[in-house]
Please model this.
Amino acid sequence: MITIRPATLADAAAISIVHCSTVDEWRDPYTRQPTDEATLNLFGRWYNGGDWMSVETCAIHLNGLLLHGHLPLVAEANGVLVGEAEYYVNREPAPFGPHLHLSVLYIHKDWQGQGIGRALIEAGVGHARALGCHALTTQPEPEMAGFYQRLDFQPWLRAKEMQTTIGGTSPLLTHLSQNSGPPEHLALRIGRYQCGVQGWETLWPSLAIPELAALRRNVWHGKLDEIPVVLGLREQFRTPTQADGYAWLPPSASLTPVVAALRSLATCEGYSAVDLLLPEDSLPELRTAFKLDYQTTVDLWIKKT
Model:
C-alpha cells in the first residue's frame, strides 16, 4: 500500500535515509578517493550528494522548502517512508512559468522499480493543476530519459555550458547585499540549472558549513541598455579562480550585453574564467562576440498538465 503525502519537518531523518541508500561509494571531497562514511564531516557528506546526506542539513533544506511555499512530497509503504519528490513553485515570466519544477525524485534502493516514482509524479500533476501551473518541468539524468518519456515528459529546452575568458569594463550595477527573493518579473536565462528559484538559492546559501560559506558569492542589479537585470557570480569549489555565472532578465532580451557584463564583473572580482549555462539558440549570436569553449549539455523536459 503506497501513500503519497506532503512532507513535514519531522520527515527529515527518513528522507536522508532514502537519499543515502543510493550512495554506492563515499568519497573524500578533496582527494576524491573512496573513504569510510564515518570519517566524513558535514561538508564531506554534503559533497557526496547534497543537503540530504545528513539529518542536520536535510532538516534545514526541508524547512526552507516549506517556509517558501514549495512542495516536497513523500511516499510511504505501510507507514515507512520509501521515496521523496521535491517540486519548486516557479512563477517566472513565460515561457518558463508558472509551473512546478521537479528537482528531486529519489526512491530508496530497496523499493525502486515498484511504481513509486510514477505515483510521486502523478501526485505532482494534481498539485500543479490545483496551483494553476500549466506544466511540470525537470532536468533528467540521461539514463532516466526512458522513465520520463513513459510519463509523457518530452525534451523542451536545451542549454550548453560554455566557458569564457574575462575582460572589459565593469558596468554600473548595484550590489545586492540582502536576499529578498528571486525577481519574479525576470527569468533566469543564464545558469538555468534546474529552475530560477534554485539558481537564486545557489547565490544565497542556507547552510552554515564553513567550506561552503567561504565560497565567494556576489549579486548585482540594475540596467544594461535600459534592460533590467540581476547578475550573480559564485566561486567554484574545486577551481577558486573560476566562477559560475547567473543572469535574470526579460525573456526576449539579448544575452550579448549580459555576457559582456558578467565577464567584466568577473574581471573586477579577480577570476580568470566564467562558466555560463547558455540557451542553445543564443549561441550563434554570442559566438560572434565572445570566445566560448564547450563544457557540457543540459536538457530541460516538460510535461503539460
In short: The CA atoms of residues 105 and 115 lie 12 Å apart.
